[in-house]
Specification:
The chain is of the alpha/beta class and 186 residues long. It is 18% helix and 26% strand. It has a single domain, classed as Dihydrofolate Reductase, subunit A (3-Layer(aba) Sandwich). The protein binds NADP nicotinamide-adenine-dinucleotide phosphate (NAP). The site of NADP nicotinamide-adenine-dinucleotide phosphate has 27 residues, from strand 1, strand 2, strand 3 and helix 3.
Length: 186
């Protein structure tokens, strides 16, 4: 929670826990229609989306959604010239409460959609993290979902170490090996 706001995270990862390749590109191997359908429906009920400057959910309804785009380049919360209904925000220069106040009144959770550092920044605050796994996808040397992910530390271990617990895994596209596990804070 942040104040009275729920915080929920959303990621689709490869077998090794990667969200993108080494060049910062999200490969087709971790793009999936069932996951996109789930994500887009979830983001429709979100109050505000939080993302890094290189992330975006896409889709026809994205421009209607309110969002905070993280960048080191600002001190206040000026409009994001790249996206409508979006403000730029530097967490080192302004607390999240200030950025949320600048967004204005809204209903619904804070939805965190990455990338790596942004997912990591919100680890203490998640009420839920929706982790989709593409079990057949391999992205060697890619960018991890959380900064702590390594050969010794899986994304699931990172979530557990921050107090989140898994709910039953759902097969959202069995033929493609895509599963979705929502981790919740008890
Ligand atoms: N598989 C998935 O679920 C998923 C999810 C998200 C993204 N992706 C993919 O991952 C790739 C991008 O990920 P990424 O991790 O490289 O990029 P990102 O987080 O979207 O963007 C990185 C930029 O965001 C800003 N930023 C991030 N953390 C910040 C902080 N704590 N304070 C201030 N600014 C901060 C910085 O902007 P400045 O340089 O302006 O300071 C940084 O260069 C894309 O291919 C995207 O499609 C995949």
């Amino acid at each position: 929670m942040i104040g009275t706001r729920r915080v929920e995270g959303y990621a689709i990862i490869s077998a090794e826990g990667m969200i993108a390749d080494a060049a910062g590109v999200m490969p087709d191997a971790i793009r999936n229609n069932a996951d996109q359908k789930f994500l887009q429906a979830e983001l429709d009920r979100a109050g505000v989306i939080v993302q890094g400057r290189h992330s975006h959910e896409g889709g026809p309804r994205a421009d209607r959604r309110r969002r905070l785009t993280l960048t080191h380049a600002v001190t206040g919360t000026p409009p994001d010239p790249s996206h409508p209904n979006a403000l730029l925000w530097n967490p080192a220069a302004a607390p999240i409460e200030q950025a949320l106040a600048a967004i204005g009144t809204f209903d619904g959770p804070i939805a965190v959609i990455g990338g790596t550092d942004v997912f990591g920044l919100f680890l203490p605050f998640y009420d839920a993290f929706h982790l989709t796994r593409a079990a057949h996808a391999k992205i060697p040397g890619g960018r991890p979902v959380f900064p702590q992910v390594s050969a010794e530390m899986t994304p699931e271990q990172v979530l557990a170490s921050h107090g989140l617990r898994p709910t039953p895994r759902r097969e959202i596209d069995a033929s493609a090996g895509i599963t979705l596990t929502t981790w919740e804070r008890p």
